Amino acid sequence: MPQHHDWQALTHFYDTHPLNEDSIREKVQVQGASGATLTEDTFQAYDQDHYGGVEAVDILARKANIGDQTYVLDVCCGLGGPARYLAHNYRCRVMGLDITESRIQSARRFTQLVKLDHLVDFRQGNALAMPFAHATFDVIMGQEAWVHVPDKTRLIAECTRVVKVGGRIAFTDILRCGALSSAEEDRLRQYWGGFATLETLEGYSQLLREAGWTIITREDLSEHWAAILVDRLAMYRSLHAETVRKFGEAHYQQWDDNYSFFVGLYTTKQLGGGRFIAQRAASVQHT
User: Fold this and answer.
1) Which are the contacts of 254, defined by CB distance < 8 A and separation ≥ 6?
2) N or C, which terminus of the chain has less Cβ within 10 Å?
3) Of 166-180, 201-215, 233-247, 272-286, which gets the smallest average pLDDT?
4) Where are the chain's structural domains?
5) Per residue in 19-42, pLDDT tens?
């Protein structure tokens, strides 16, 4: 397992992210919902920090056969929006894992706020050394976060270790689709919380097969995400006042410049995305 990945840079990236506990609370309060009147039905419009919103969560849930008897692990869960959505709408239990302590603390507070802490829990921890026993979960999920994890082979091995035989993995991630210059790669690594390795559609498929998974579906989402990311840039710009108030104008301008660069890599088809659904078909030797 890599020992020298800059986890501190990743933590800083999410500690200073425009979509954070304060910005979400402000948006929810504008709708007049608070305290006893606040429910997940209201909250879910503001806390989904991934591409495609709740519709994307529903697609993964359906393809992974999630129901009220399912125990789900959301790997790199962030603020816990998908975890709460799944528990509320599918009545399943969910564990969220993330390396960023501030995200975990916010996720716990939000979950208590919407009264879902009887179904949803969170742990701070490294996806390359998960703090869970073998064969604990029925489904592993992830959404556009595994790009930050430096050792994809070890990541998939850990997912395989903690899921039950016959369980499913359902995830989306940012992918390399075309050539990137060294300057572009450096900028992604330096600013975007450490884009340590960019997998391809076939690369992830091969890693899954080698780890004992049977691929059910894999989908290229690149064109769909290119359109979504233009809208997300507009969303982040709508948080200008909140971001400046919390982190300062210079931070906002840096974020805007770098996010515009990131969106541009989708429009030039250098970056893209994929959705993967697979089933653990047989026992494997854990490492």
Assistant:
1) 191
2) C
3) 272-286
4) 7-279
5) 788 888 887 876 665 556 688 998
Cβ(186)–Cβ(159) below 8 Å: no
Q: 201, 218 in Cβ contact below 8 A?
A: yes
Q: For 119, phi and psi rounded to 5 degrees?
A: -115, -20
CB atoms within 10 A of CB 199: 18
The one-character DSSP state at 74 is E
pTM of the full structure: 0.90
* Exposed / middle / buried, residue 285 (Cβ in 10 Å: 0-12, 13-18, 19+): exposed
Residues with Cβ within 8 Å of residue 209, at least 6 apart in sequence: 215
> 249 and 140 in contact (C-beta within 8 Å)?
no
Q: pLDDT digits over 37-96, tens only?
A: 688 998 898 888 889 999 999 999 999 999 999 999 999 999 999 999 999 999 999 999
DSSP summary character for residue 69:
T
User: 7-279 has which fold?
Assistant: Rossmann fold (3.40.50)
- Beta partners for 94? 72, 120
Per the CB < 8 A criterion, the answer to whether 63 and 216 are in contact is yes
Q: Do residues 46 and 27 make contact, with C-beta atoms less than 8 angstroms apart? A: yes
Four-residue CA torsion sign, 204, 205, 206, 210: positive
